[in-house]
Specification:
single chain, Beta Polymerase, domain 2, 3 helices, alpha+beta
Length: 99
């Protein structure tokens, strides 16, 4: 995982402040590959209520401003049937910890 502990903390705190303390964040994509370079930050946010487009936009902007890297947010409501893409993110991703 190519994120520092400080970056993981910033991600968790940002998501928690916007979506709520029960949100679960999963990192997926190229940032999981320690041998790769660059790449964006792909996050799946799972919470009791589906994060709104505005909430996802706020998370994206806040993280891009503080981490200085492009961020993509995928959201899912806890317990909902995931799409094919969400299933891949859930199966291959690494949790950043619950809030």
């Amino acid at each position: 995982m190519r994120l520092t502990e400080l970056q993981r903390t910033i991600i968790r705190q940002t998501v928690s402040s916007i979506v709520g303390s029960g949100a679960h964040v999963i990192l997926f994509g190229s940032r999981l590959d320690d041998s790769a370079r660059g790449g964006d930050l792909d996050l799946l946010v799972e919470s009791d209520e589906l994060p709104t487009l505005m909430q996802r936009s706020r998370i994206k902007l806040a993280l891009e401003s503080s981490l200085f890297m492009p961020v993509d947010i995928v959201a899912i409501k806890r317990g909902a049937q995931p799409t094919a893409f969400q299933r891949i993110a859930l199966a291959t991703g690494a949790p950043l910890g619950g809030m």
